Amino acid sequence: MADPKGFMTTPREEYPRRPVEERVRDWNEVYVPRALLPIINRQADRCMDCGIPFCHDACPLGNLIPEWNDLVSRDDWRAASDRLHATNNFPEFTGRLCPAPCEAGCVLAINQPAVTIKNVEVAIADRAWEDGFTPPRPPDRLSGRTVAVIGSGPTGLAAAQQLTRAGHTVAVYERADRIGGLLRYGIPAFKMEKRHLDRRLEQMRAEGTKFRTSTAVGTDIRAADLKARYDAVILAIGATAWRELDVPGRELAGIHQAMQYLPLADRVCEGDLEVSPLSAAGKHVVIVGGGDTGADCLGTAVRERAASVTQLDIYAQPEAERDEDVEPWPTYPKIYRLSAAHEEAGVLGTAPAADADARLFAASTLRFTGDADGHVRSLHLVEVDERRRPVPDSGRTLPADLVLLALGFSGPDRHDGLLDQLDLELNPRGTIARDPDFATNVPGVYAAGDAARGQSLIVWAIAEGRAVAAAVDRALSGASRLPAPIGPYDRPMKV
Predict the structure, then answer these.
(1) How far apart are CA 275 and CA 285, in angstroms?
(2) Which of 406, 405, 407, 455 is closest to 430 using CA atoms?
(3) Per-residue pLDDT at 194 exceeds 80
(4) pLDDT at residue 1 is higher than 70
(5) Which of 350, 361, 220 is nearest to 285 (CA)?
(6) Which one-letter DSSP state was computed for residue 182?
(7) Which stretches make up the 4Fe-4S ferredoxin-type domain (predicted)?
(8) 189 falls in which pLDDT band (50, 70, 90)?
(9) Strand arrangement of the beta sheet that strand 396-399 belongs to
């Protein structure tokens, strides 16, 4: 450790955000450009170099956090990049998008603010690209074996890069017109500008990975035909079957799933559309669902100049600090967090009927009502207790011209016929069943990521991609030197 007293003498300082009034006028990332570098060495000094670094266990990638913290504190950015990329294919993604369970597991967090691990990570990743520390790494020789990866989200991309570097010939199939999955069409640009994704894809192309866009396996190509062409097939198709809200009035126009809404905003940023067909401009917007996807909808609606935006969360407002009796360190606690989108909504006062950050907690939707043309105009809700029972005389009505459902996902989408064509076995909760080697019941077919694990974090997605790549490499080559950070049945630390 570079500074044995750093955690005692230096307070936590986070990546500063641009002023709200400035950033809501564009779709650029919310942070002040290059403002992180002047503070990051001091923040890395706060790492205690613990004898047992629980940040490792909290992160499924097994990131070597104390090592690259120490290297950053000494200004050895090349070595820090090497240690970071040793466990993570895409740290520029995770450093922007992951909620940082590693920081919840930081030993310093027992009684002080945690080390800013996520900020150090993204600083290393960005510096690595700027200084040329991330050249393509094509294999020295080819194995003669071929692999198809279906799905180009973080799981599919991580698996493809690992297998390409191991010498296999890999093709990634994506049903959308661009590569990236939810990284491309789902994550708003103000959270991660797409140039980071494009840059990494160019690296992968230079290494030899092939990409096939606008190709839906199951409809454009029969799954059996694809399987016959490759030595192995990896299903990394995500969990895109969204959950519904079965209440009266759901059939009204103007009620949409979050993942119908968010990709259109991304297409506006890509230049495909001048204006989103579902734009929130001038509308009273209500978002049903209190998670990250709902917050993404909130930030998007604010930038589209909605008349008002309110987000409903069925859970009670969390406490500001961890409850050690319920969620002891080093588990990831459910505490009150203020995302950039919630900060924007609070400053701009987008939700007069809600609390300061646009969220209504402990709120359950009862029904929707509309106008004579069949378009939604109101959402009726009720406050609920901790067991989700209605609180008497707590009913409220919110104006709603656009309602966005952000209720999570239940498993992979079955509409394209892929799962049925392969006759894949599913778990009771609708995800793809697999054995300890990530293999499905169909020989030569493997499953990884949200399609098999269920909806999870980006770090788990990348860890799944790296682990399934090791399993496939071992099956094709007889042995593998690729790292496998997790098994298919591993789960986050919980009480």
Answers:
(1) 17
(2) 455
(3) yes
(4) no
(5) 350
(6) G
(7) 36-69
(8) very high
(9) 363-370, 376-383, 396-399
Alpha-carbon span 264 to 270, nearest angstrom? 10
What single-letter DSSP state applies at residue 18?
Answer: P
Least confident of 83-97, 161-175, 403-417, 463-477: 403-417
The answer to whether the beta carbons of residues 91 and 122 sit under 8 Å apart is yes
Closest CA to 138 of 158, 167, 160: 167
Cβ proximity of 187 and 148 under 8 Å: no
Q: Which amino acid is at 160?
A: A
Query: 190 by DSSP, 3-state: which?
Result: coil
Amino acid at 454: G
Q: Which two tokens stand for residue 375?
A: 């378009």
- Structural tokens at position 317: 């407002």
Number of H helices, E strands in the chain: 18, 13
Place of tokens 């009670």: 316
- What does the alpha-carbon distance between residue 76 and residue 15 come to, in Å, rounded to a whole number? 21
Instruction: Name residue 324's amino acid.
Output: E
Reduced to 3 states (helix: H, G, I; strand: E, B; else coil), residue 248 is coil
What is the helix (H) or strand (E) element at residue 370, kind and residue range? strand 363-370
| Residue written as token pair 């990051």 | 40
